[in-house]
Amino acid sequence: MSMHLYQISSKLLGDTVGKMNDNLTSIVLAASVITLTLGYISKMLLRQSSDKDLKYPPYIPSCIPFLGHAIAFGKSPIEFLEDAYEKYGPVFSFTMVGKTFTYLLGSEAATLMFNSKNDDLNAEDVYSRLTTPVFGKGVAYDVPNPIFLEQKKMLKTGLNIAHFKEHVKIIEAETIEYFERWGDSGEKSKIIYTSHY
Fold this sequence. Notes:
By secondary structure, this protein is mainly alpha-helical. The protein has helices at residues 2-20, 24-50, 70-75, 77-88, 107-114, 123-135, 145-158, 161-180, and strands spanning 91-96, 99-104, 185-188, 191-194. The protein is elongated and about 85 Å long.
């Protein structure tokens, strides 16, 4: 059976190459497709054989190799993540636009990440782009890990629910003070205020 399949595939390949001899673009395109397919298959086989000792989260397969789940995730990310959570549990991975994303949903799964050692997960690479605009340079994930660990102690005590509740009172007082300067009514940047006191 395998010899018969081999003979058919080599005849088909030979016929295709024979017909494409005059067309350089077709040859380059066919070679590219074959190379990419072989590369993808070998990558998957090597990953499976070399990583047998490592434990990976469940991977959501996709029939679209490069795009992966980008379309489904883009249309409805919350629905996509809820469906994945039901099927695969709180930790799972999937591909979007050539990158593998791993999600940890729920407090228990998130705790694994936030309490892991920097050698296991390098959060600076991911979070520095998010936290630097918020906290500024040299704070949080924009510093080497030993400095961040010192800062993290201060952040944990400063950024907690009790402190946030106190900030609400300050924000509310500043907002009321700001709008009181307007008098009984006013409009600015699509914010309309009318005094109800």
